[in-house]
């Protein structure tokens, strides 16, 4: 399966072989980024291309194999093409020659099943324009318009781009803030960032960089220190930080060092609130206390990386969970967006990483089988906070009291 290691909006291009999918990508990018040939089946596997779309910004277009591929290998290619429906935010169905039959109808059904918005482009219109009857049938049945287009003579490429802008959900490229809605002008946010064997040399990890940018975007002040300096620095700080965000691995140290009247959470939990399944994480985390001997726990990483001797997902979390529960648990770790082995119902619980490397659509799609099966889900930060007895404190910054006196979450 194609890896979804990019947080930009993802657009999938679908259609039959030799229908002009790759030519459409070249028209969108204004350069020959995809191989074009008159030979059917030139594109054999999903291929990602980075582009810039006015009004949306950076995006990823995925060129797929033809949905009418033949033979045993062709069927595998079709399955791989359909697999990307789990990671895309918008689909473009390319048709030509007024052909709209079972393959296209099946794709549209899959779009809807995966809650993927789509638009239809009738390509090669310089050779054969779309018939009025076809336009009416597609519009009446699916409530979408068909754009007449010629990838070889892309005079109306702006119309296609406008359709992409109008069809792409705004929430995909206009993300809610990480912490900007929790702070006011001039507030200080203290970040606790361990520098250990897992920290990339000369760089900070992506969640730390994302939080720094978000605080600055909302007119806050960022202060960064390692866990060893927290005690001394907080005593000196004036004014005190409005919020402290820590790496989950040093949650216990941060909890002891940060006074109780200062809100404390983790990078992983902040990410979970922005693009994770936060409500289900809140419900699922306490299930850790109900794990039994022999239970299988599925740990999902959103990226593939070198595994260190004290890896957070493969070593530390299994160790902490086993120690906390006192149970003999089995752990399965799946990296990237690889297929989950076995039946989802075989797992007692799912623990998802912070997901800094994938989109919200990819994350929600990744967790959907577990949620649909009623399996509790949580994420690294919440699970770590829970087993160290600081779960309630870690989610407190997101509490908001409602008029009826109940507690909700921002």
Report mean pLDDT, rounded to a whole number: 85
Strand tally, please? Answer: 16
Low-confidence spans: 1-5, 34-44, 401-407
Number of domains: 3
Q: Outline the biggest β-sheet.
A: 6 strands, mixed
Alpha-carbon distance between the two ends: 35 Å
In the CATH hierarchy, what is the architecture of the largest domain at level 2?
Answer: 3-Layer(aba) Sandwich
CATH top level of the largest domain?
Answer: Alpha Beta
Q: Helical amount among residues, as a percent range? A: 25-40%
Output the radius of gyration. 24 Å
The quaternary organization reads as single chain
CATH-level-4 superfamily name of the largest domain: P-loop containing nucleotide triphosphate hydrolases
CATH topology of the largest domain: Rossmann fold
Strand-residue proportion: 15-25%
| Structural class by secondary-structure content | alpha/beta
Placed side by side, the strands forming the largest sheet appear as 2-3-1-4-5-6
Basic shape: globular
Task: Enumerate how many helices there are, as a single number.
Answer: 15
Quick summary of this structure?
The protein is α/β, with parallel strands linked by helices. It is 35% helix and 19% strand. The protein folds into 3 domains: 164 residues, Rossmann fold (3-Layer(aba) Sandwich), CATH 3.40.50.300; 91 residues, Rossmann fold (3-Layer(aba) Sandwich), CATH 3.40.50; 112 residues, Rossmann fold.
């Amino acid at each position: 399966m194609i890896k979804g290691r990019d947080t930009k909006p993802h657009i999938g291009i679908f259609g039959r072989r030799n229908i002009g999918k790759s030519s459409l990508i070249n028209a969108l990018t204004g350069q020959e980024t995809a191989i074009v040939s008159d030979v059917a089946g030139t594109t054999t596997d999903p291929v990602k291309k980075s582009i810039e779309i006015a009004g949306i910004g950076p995006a990823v277009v995925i060129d797929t194999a033809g949905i009418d591929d033949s033979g045993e290998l062709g069927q595998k290619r079709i399955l791989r093409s359909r697999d990307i429906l789990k990671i895309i935010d918008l689909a473009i169905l390319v048709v030509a020659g007024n052909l709209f039959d079972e393959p296209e109808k099946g794709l549209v059904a899959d779009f809807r099943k995966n809650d993927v918005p789509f638009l239809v482009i009738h390509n090669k219109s310089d050779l054969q324009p779309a018939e009025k009857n076809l336009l009416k049938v597609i519009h009446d049945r699916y409530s979408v318009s068909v754009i007449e287009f010629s990838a070889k003579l892309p005079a109306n490429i702006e119309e296609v781009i406008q359709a992409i802008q109008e069809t792409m959900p705004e929430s995909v490229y206009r993300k809610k803030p990480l912490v900007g809605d929790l702070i006011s002008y001039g507030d200080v946010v203290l970040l606790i960032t361990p520098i250990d064997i897992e920290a990339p040399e000369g760089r900070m990890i992506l969640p730390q960089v994302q939080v720094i940018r978000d605080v600055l975007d909302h007119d806050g002040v960022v202060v960064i220190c390692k866990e060893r300096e927290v005690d001394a620095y907080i005593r000196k700080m004036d004014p005190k930080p409005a919020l402290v965000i820590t790496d989950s691995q040093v949650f216990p140290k941060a909890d002891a060092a940060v006074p109780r009247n200062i809100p404390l959470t983790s990078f992983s939990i902040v990410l979970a609130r922005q693009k994770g399944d936060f409500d289900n994480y809140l419900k699922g985390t306490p299930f850790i206390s109900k794990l039994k001997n022999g239970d299988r726990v599925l740990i999902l990483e959103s990226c593939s990386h070198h595994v260190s001797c004290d890896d957070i997902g493969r070593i530390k979390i299994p160790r902490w969970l086993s120690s906390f529960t006192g149970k003999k648990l089995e752990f399965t770790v799946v990296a990237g967006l690889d297929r989950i082995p076995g039946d989802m119902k075989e797992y007692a619980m799912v623990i998802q990483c912070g997901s800094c490397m994938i989109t919200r659509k990819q994350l929600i799609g990744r967790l959907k089988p577990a949620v649909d099966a009623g399996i509790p889900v949580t994420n690294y930060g919440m699970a770590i906070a829970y087993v160290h007895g600081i779960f309630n404190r870690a989610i407190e910054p997101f509490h908001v009291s409602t008029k009826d006196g109940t507690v909700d979450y921002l």
